[in-house]
Amino acid sequence: MSTQSKTPIWKTTLSDSVSRIPATLPANLRVRIVGLDDLGQQRRLDWLGTWITSDDVFTYTPENMRILAQAYRGYDVIVLHGNDASAMAPILQQWRRALNGKAIVAILPDHDAPAHAALLKAGADTVIDLDKPASVATAMVCALIRRTQAAIDAPAA
User: Are 138 and 51 within 8 A, CB to CB?
Assistant: First the structure.
C-alpha cells in the first residue's frame, strides 16, 4: 500500500477541468451566422466576432431559409441572433424542422429567462446572451458540438 498522499479530487477537479476547456472553437468548425435586421445587429456581430470566425454571415430574409436548407452540408453550426425572441422563435421552429440534426445556437442581447425558454422550446439547442464572456460562449458551443456529434455517432436502436 502506498504511503504517498493524494490530493483530494475536489481540490484538483476544477482547475484541471478549466485547463481542458478549449480557448477557441475547433478550426475545422463551419459556422453560419444569420441575424435579424434590427438596431442591435452590429453590436451582436461585433461580439460574435470575438469568438467565432465565419465567412457565412447573412441578414435574415425568408428567402435565406431556402438557401440554408439547400446548403445543409455546408456548415456544422447555425447561429441566429436578434433582439426579439418573439421574432426569432418562428424562424427557429422552421429551422428545427428543416435542419434536424444541425446544431442551432440563438444569441440574445441580454439574459431574459422567459425569452431563453421560448427559444429553447422553439428549437434552439442553446441560447447565449451578450453578457456571457467569450470563453463561456465558446465552452457552451463546444459542449453543444460534443452532444451533437455523440448523437450522430450513436448506434441506431
Answer: yes
CA dist 19 and 54 (Å) reads 26
CB 48 within 8 A of CB 79: yes
pLDDT 10s digits, 29-86: 889 899 999 999 999 999 999 999 888 888 898 877 666 666 656 788 999 999 999 9
Can you tell me the distance from the alpha carbon of 123 to that of 125, in angstroms, rounded to the nearest whole number? 6
Q: Longest Cα pair distance anywhere in the chain, in angstroms?
A: 69
Q: How far apart are CA 143 and CA 21, in angstroms?
A: 10
pTM: predicted TM-score of the whole model, two decimal places: 0.79
- Cβ-based burial of 112 (10 A; exposed 0-12, middle 13-18, buried ≥19): middle
